[in-house]
Every structure is written in structure tokens, then in C-alpha cells.
């Protein structure tokens, strides 16, 4: 239950818990919906063929960047299909790295914090647009940079939009601070770089506050909540927050290369009464983190299959949504040298990037004194990579991107393809019965009310007859290539030319044709 909030002398009761709003049993759905699917049945074997190439890329990257140890894994369709490790997690004892070695993953922890927030939201415990001071009272007395600044919300914190300044590497040194330290820090006021809600700026402080909110709302330390509600259901039984709880022979020690020698970095404790660890304290292995990656990949595509994860698939997809835009790079080049502009955004505890070829990447890096890591997935392709190293701020963004791009190019991978819906195929067949003469089209009852006012029948008939004459004898009509359930194109193959028909359907039920275009295409091989 929410605590009353006193504003301007009036008592406001925050919205009560309402689980019924989030109950999946209340959702009605189409049993005939067909999700996007892979059409290449040999894709996994093609990927396996090039795993030695991928291994060499990571091995060379570790050598070039002077990592004491590297551990990495490839996940395809929810399975960890390959992993390898090089070097030592403990240089003094010469303990070799393995896929079960436990590395501190730093800011890769943030998505677990975000997932916990969404799980609590799904339970009706709060709204993402609630002011954060409902749950962290000390935030009520913040002095904002402008008089018109909105109060910081939970959504602002999730998307790095609270107006706090970028705080790397200052935030890295706060892991062992208690909640009392955090509240005293807030009480002394926070320096803002922007008013809340107008810009992206990466903030470890913001995720520490999310950890505090999880603790306050769940009634247990955020570490315990995430362990019981996310790690355990996924089978991540060895994951930890506090390094002292990790077996000595499994714990990766962190190092910094300085003055031509390795210097071991002091590991920071994750205190049980502190929230800073929510931004970067988690310790795990490649073997276990792959289970978390599988959860994220399983959220795509949307489907009618039974929910089996610790959070709803729709909430995982919500984590992948680009909520706060943060960049556009018109000069971006892939590791193979080809130019391809990209745009980027921050989601909830995750980063988002889309390139000029339409490929979408979801990722997050981690960096702390002694450690560097990154995971990157491509939901449309069902693949992902993760890599850890025990050198301060070990870089992985470029090599992980190169690995995925290499797999796609060498194995000829294609994204899932959406099959045409029954209504799209039906409307295609009905269109073919009236083309090219549009005979009785106005009485066919397949067109929305706007159609003929927008597309005069005489013009439609003239255009179609001309194109069919150019095409000559019709050889066949291809299935609809859908953009979604209610929009798509299909090709009419003729002896002399091809014709492309584009149409989109209305939101009424049954859906009717509201827009239509037809054009000549270069002849293709039949």
C-alpha cells in the first residue's frame, strides 16, 4: 500500500494497488495470430560453421587490449551454443578463466534493476510516472534548476532523464555506501546538469535511487528481491552481489595495467543496507548470464505461447523500447569498413541502436575498476553475444558488434519473416477478382468508406488496364509480403513485366481496404 503524501497542506492518497489492471487472464486475443518466424531451417548449422572465426576475433581482441582474462559466449534461440575463455582470473595463483568464472559485470546490472521495477509495476505497486519522492522521501525537498521543472519520476530514472549529471567514474566508487550515506548526500542537494525530462545523461545515481525504490516498495533489500524474483526463477543460482560470497577459485580478480605491470584493483563490497549496487555490483558467469539473455530473446516475437518467465514478455519488450533518444551518427562505419548511419537511444537499463539496414541491437556495457563487459542481442535474428574481462574498463562494444555482423554476413542470416495474415490474403484474392477492370468494385463490400472518394473509379480502372497491358499474360500471383497484420504488398508476375500492388486495411472489423497503390516493376525470373 502507498503512503499518504502531504502536498500544500492537503492529504493526497496515492493510487492503491490494483492487480486487476495487469492480470493477463483478462486479455482477449486472436488465436489465429501467427508470429514472425525464421524460414531458414539450416541457420543454426550455418552459425556453428563460423564459430572458429568468432573465437579468433575474441582471442585477438583480448591480445590487442592486454586482458588478463576473457570469457565470452554466443547465444542462439535461447541456447548458449558456444563459449570459450583465455587467460587467468587470478594472476598470482594462475587460475584459468572459464565460462563458470564469476566476473563483476558493473553496469550490466542496471537491466536487472529495471526488470525488478517493471515487475513491481506489473503487480500494481506503482506507476512509472509516479514522482520518485513518493518512495524516497528525501527527494521531496530537492531544489530543481528551474521553476518549471517537473518532479523526477520513476520513468526519468529508468531512462537516464532525471537531469542528474553523467557520473562515471565518480559513481563507480560509491558501491560500498549505505542508504544512510545516500540519503545524507541527497539532503545536501544534488547538482543538476539539466531540468528533468529534457535530455539523456547517463546517471549511476539514478539507478541507485531505483534500487532504493525497490527496497521501499517490496519490503526487502533490492538485492534479495532480484535474487528471489529474477535470478532464482531463471536458474542463476550462483549469481551474487557481494564478492565475499563467491568461492575463491571462481572469483575473477580485477586488474589495471599501470607502469608496465599489472596492479590488482581493490574489490568494493556491496553492503546489504546500501542501494548503490543496483547500478553496478552484480557478479555472475557466462554460463548463468546466458540464461538471462535467453529470457530477453524469448520475448520476441510477440506470440500466444504460455508465459514462463519471471516477468511478462511484454514487459521485457518494454525494456527494449527506445524511450530516450540520445544520438545519430551519419558517419558510422562497421568494422569491415562499410558506411552505415545509425541512431541510438536508451531504453530501461539497456541501450538501443538501429542501423541504415534496419537491424536493431539491444545492449549494455559495464565498466568498473578492474572489470569491463558487454552483452548485445539482436532480437529479430535470435542471436546474442556476451563477453567479460578483468581489466579496468575493458572495451567490448566494437568487437561484439563485429562478431554479430560477421555471423550475419558469413552465415547469410535473415531476420524472422512475418507470415501474411488471413485477412491480407483474403483481400489480395478479392482484389485479383476485380483487377484490372474494377468490375462491380463499388458493390464488393471490401473497401472502406473513404476508398472511392479518395480513389476515383475511372482513374483506378485506367491505371490498372495500362499496367496489365504492359505485363502481358499473367503467369502467377505471389503471396502477400506483410509489413504487419493489416498492410502489405504482393507481386503479379507477367510475361513482359511485373506489377506490385500495395494496400493497407482499416481498423474496423472485418478490416477493409482503405489505401491502394499499383506500379510497374522490372520483370523478374519466374
Distinctive features:
single chain, 526 residues, alpha+beta, Beta-lactamase, 2 domains, nine-stranded antiparallel sheet, five-stranded antiparallel sheet, 13 helices, 20 strands, 21% strand, disordered N terminus
Structure description:
It is a single chain. The chain is of the alpha+beta class and 526 residues long. The chain folds into 2 domains: 24-411, DD-peptidase/beta-lactamase superfamily (Beta-lactamase, 3-Layer(aba) Sandwich); 422-521. It has helices spanning 43-49, 51-64, 110-122, 154-158, 179-187, 204-218, 222-234, 286-298, 313-319, 397-411, 422-434, 451-454, 457-471, and strands at residues 5-7, 10-12, 69-76, 79-90, 95-96, 103-104, 255-258, 261-264, 283-284, 324-329, 342-346, 351-355, 360-368, 371-378, 383-389, 474-477, 481-484, 487-494, 498-505, 513-521. The strands form 5 sheets. A 9-stranded antiparallel β-sheet has the order 5-4-3-15-14-13-12-11-10, sandwiched between helices. Strands 16, 17, 18, 19 and 20 form a 5-stranded antiparallel β-sheet that branches. Residues 1-22 have low confidence and may be disordered.
